[in-house]
Write a sequence for this structure.
């Protein structure tokens, strides 16, 4: 690519120099030739800068991650889970059937997830994978802002309605807030927590519903 640019520079210089145009002085011709040479030298410098290889230490974290193929990592995890589960069944047999099922279950899960990789290069059938790859950074940045607000309501509910089964621990509190955020069992949740502290339940539920919808 660099050699082609140099040939183009010499070609343009050779075409401009012998050109005999009416009303063009030698000084104007020399200035034009100099401008052409400078422009092509800038192009050559840009090509040389682009062709320079960066060292591993100079790459950013995202550039390092982009080097690896995500599908290869998923295939590797699939093999590890399935081989480990199979070995547990063959060697330990009945004593560890439950743990083997866990390994095989994750291996089967990864195997099904890896099926879209076979149509990843086809634009007609890779809509889901391309959509996930395009929207994942946006969704991730949104979750960073949503999770603290969500946990704030969970901890507030645990402090206000600690005597309710809905907020007896963090797991139940997160499940209750997530269900309310998606519009599931709104009446049941409000009826349950309002039986303990009606005014606090009214303010809490209205504020959480407003934040969840907006």
């Amino acid at each position: 690519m660099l050699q082609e640019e140099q040939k183009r520079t010499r070609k343009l210089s050779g075409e401009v120099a012998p050109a005999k145009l009416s009303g063009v002085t030698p000084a104007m011709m020399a200035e034009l030739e100099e401008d052409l040479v400078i422009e092509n030298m800038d192009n050559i410098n840009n090509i040389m800068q682009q062709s320079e290889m960066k060292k591993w230490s100079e790459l950013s974290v995202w550039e390092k991650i982009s080097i690896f193929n995500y599908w290869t990592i998923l295939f590797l995890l699939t093999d590890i889970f399935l081989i480990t589960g199979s070995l547990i069944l063959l060697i330990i047999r009945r004593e560890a059937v439950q743990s083997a099922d866990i390994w095989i279950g994750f291996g089967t899960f990864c195997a099904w997830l890896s099926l879209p990789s076979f149509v990843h290069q086809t634009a007609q059938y890779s809509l889901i994978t391309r959509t996930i790859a395009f929207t994942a950074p946006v969704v991730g940045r949104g979750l960073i802002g949503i999770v603290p607000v969500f946990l704030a309501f969970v901890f507030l509910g645990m402090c206000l309605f600690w005597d309710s089964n809905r907020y007896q621990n963090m797991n139940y509190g997160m499940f209750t807030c997530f269900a309310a955020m998606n519009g599931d069992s709104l009446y049941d949740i409000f009826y349950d927590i309002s039986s303990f502290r009606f005014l606090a339940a009214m303010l809490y539920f209205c504020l959480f519903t407003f934040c969840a919808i907006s």
Notes: Confidence is low (pLDDT under 50) at residues 11-22. The radius of gyration is 33 Å. The longest helix spans residues 127-160. DSSP finds nine helices and no strands in the chain.
